[in-house]
Amino acid sequence: MGLALAPKEPRAPRGAAPPPLAVLPGEAPDAGPLDLAALFGRSTPVELEIGTGKGRFLLAEAAAHPERSYLGVELQNEYARIARERAKKRGLANVRVERVDAKAFVAARLAPGSLAAMHVFFPDPWPKKRHRKRRLFDADFAAAAARALEPGGLLRVASDHEEYFASILGTLDAEPALARVPEAETGGWLCGTNYEAKFLVEGRWIGRAVYRRT
What is the reported pLDDT for 188? Predict the structure, then answer.
């Protein structure tokens, strides 16, 4: 009996950019909302990290909270592979890391109210004006993120780029389904990522904020 092959990603017309990768291996190109209970093999609160990198934050959270499930999305194939291998080596059955485009994935693949929390730490700021359309945070993403969160679910964001962080706050403040949590309530929290550790050593500025799904 032969092995089933995953469907090929749709080919873009010559000269056009390929469509954003939003499906997991083995899924049809037009797959609907992802069944998170089936993905993890259990029904638990699910937290999503966008831009997992090598998995430092994701794996630490998964180890500390085995009663929850953690999904990481990472566009760089090598980083996704490393995070998966580290999760396997540590015996973390409550972790999945998938290589997808975060913006397309959140908009198209997450059912309303399916996440307990979302974490977005140090997204690429794309500082040049001609590249800013590539930024993750815009009005459409803010609406999609809010929709994916359960009532009371948290969106945590951090950035070392002051202009982009101000833009992120403006975008999230304008989303009616999200409310910023006062700093007095969140306290001086840390992300626990490799980038954060590096930036703290360098003494770089870091902005952090938490929003709650209303």
Answer: 84
The DSSP secondary-structure symbol of 26 reads T
Domain boundaries, the chain: 38-213
Spatial neighbors of 62 by CB under 8 A, at least 6 apart, are 68, 70, 87, 92, 94, 95
Residue 75, Cβ density class (10 Å: 0-12 exposed, 13-18 middle, ≥19 buried): middle
Pair 123, 136: CB distance under 8 Å: yes
Q: Is the dihedral of CA 40, 153, 111, 53 positive or negative?
A: negative
Secondary structure letter of residue 94 according to DSSP: T
Residue 93, classed as helix, strand or coil, is: coil
For residue 107, give the H/E element and its range: helix 102-109
Please indicate whether residue 138 is annotated as part of the active site: no
- The correct CATH number of 38-213 out of 3.40.50.150, 3.40.50.300, 3.40.50.1910, 3.40.50.360 is 3.40.50.150
- The answer for residues whose C-beta is within 8 angstroms of residue 57's C-beta and 6 or more apart is 49, 119, 121, 191, 192, 193
Q: Which of 30, 35, 101, 124 is catalytic?
A: 124
pTM, two decimal places: 0.89
Task: Name the percent of the chain lying above pLDDT 90.
Answer: 82
On the 0-12 / 13-18 / 19+ scale of CB atoms within 10 A, 157 is: buried
